[in-house]
Amino acid sequence: MRKPIIAGNWKMNKTVSEAIELCRNLERAVHDSDVEVVVCPPFTALSALCALGMKKVKLGAQNMSNMEKGAFTGEVSVVMLQDVCCNYVIIGHSERRQIFNETDQLINQKAHLALKYGLKPIICVGETLVQRRANETEKVVINQIKAAFHEIPQDRAVNVVVAYEPIWAIGTGETASAEEANSVIGTIRKTLAQIYDSKTANQMRIQYGGSVKPENIKELMAQPEIDGALVGGASLNAEDFSAIVHYNE
Ligand code: 13P
Q1: What total number of domains does the chain contain?
Q2: How far, in Å, is the centroid of ligand 1 from the Cα of 216?
Q3: Residue 155 is inside which H or E element, if any?
Q4: pLDDT in tens, 107-118
Q5: What is the DSSP string of 37-69?
Q6: Can 93 be counted among the known catalytic residues?
Q7: 56: containing domain
Q8: Higher confidence at residue 233 or residue 1?
Q9: φ, ψ (nearest 5 deg) of residue 92
Q10: CA 123, CA 160: separation in Å to the nearest integer?
Q11: 27, 95, 165, 225: which is the annotated catalytic residue?
Q12: What pLDDT digit, counting tens, does each position of 1-16 carry?
């Protein structure tokens, strides 16, 4: 059985004091859940949240450098993230791919580096609206998965979480239907089974992301292939995010 994982991607939101308040409320609200709960705040809040010593809520970063250390002004390294209690790091979010021109190759380098240091990547894939209308969803997602996992060995691949986030569903209020999301995620799992084997693919967790809310999480989680969610807007307040974590009640 795959343990469900629900992660909040706060994007460029929350000051340090706002982040502390949200995490204190969240830790209280989700402490009894069986779901793995992760929040990915901005870099600036990580140190203070690490100091809270949360037991239930795990920390992740929203990005990291593909370089280990050195003269890379403005970058944040994998070791720095571990130093502030991060267990996870989001890699290749569509906003980074689209706005900051991150390539499949860069995303693959980041995934290798995170895994080398034992940080678990949440690798994002997903199609644009144009690609969806051209019936290219499967092709796009398969190619992104193959590129992201290039030369990642099987024993490390099991530590990767994949997030399927159709770009047209992010921040728009539109969600892929639960069946559609399940079908694309099934394709992702088949691709992972081709790269590795079905035992490995069946161990790996694949999330859905894109306008996940307390109102639609239950239906999404009822799908056999969907192992969790990567939540943007609705992760910014403790009430909504804890309602999402408690989808089963
Ligand atoms: P929304 O939940 O705000 O649509 O954002 C999804 C997302 O991009 C999470 O990484």
Answers
A1: 1
A2: 14
A3: helix 154-157
A4: 999 999 999 999
A5: EEEE--HHHHHHHHHTT-SSEEEEES---SSSS
A6: yes
A7: 5-245
A8: 233
A9: 70, 30
A10: 7
A11: 165
A12: 899 999 999 999 999 9
